[in-house]
Amino acid sequence: QVQLVDSGGGLVQAGGSLRLSCAASGRAYVMAWFRQAPGKDHEFVAGISWSGSSTYGADSVKGRFTISRDNAKNTVYLQMNSLKPEDTAVYYCAARRRTTIVVVSTDYDYWGQGTQVTVSS
Q: If 12 and its partner were Cys, which of 16, 26, 51, 93 is the partner (CB 3.0–4.6 Å)?
């Protein structure tokens, strides 16, 4: 079992930055961030391999968001820059015991509780 605790959300003005963190209690080969806006399904944001050597980001956030991980701390981060109002959502950390980064939420085994990100215009 892997337990995830995500944090770091908040209220920020458009163009601002936030850094989300996800602390894992066990080994997870692939970690990812999803987000869910009101009335919408989970949307893949970014994923990262266990070593951190491979990352993949959604087109909507490329150039603005960066995913990274510190395996010594068993923690994954999402640095969000140049935030836009459309980035407003609950952001969830997710993990899977596989080596392939995928974008489908149902392919992930473990989930954090979610942290709210609100971007004002």
A: 16
Assess contact for 69 and 75: CB atoms under 8 A: yes
Provide the 3-class DSSP secondary structure of residue 85: helix
- E strand intervals along 1-121: 4-7, 10-13, 18-24, 30-36, 43-48, 55-57, 65-70, 75-80, 89-96, 110-111, 115-120
Which residues, at least 6 apart from 72, have a Cβ–Cβ distance to it below 8 Å? none
Residue 86: DSSP 8-state: G
Q: How far is CA 51 from the centre of its chain?
A: 16
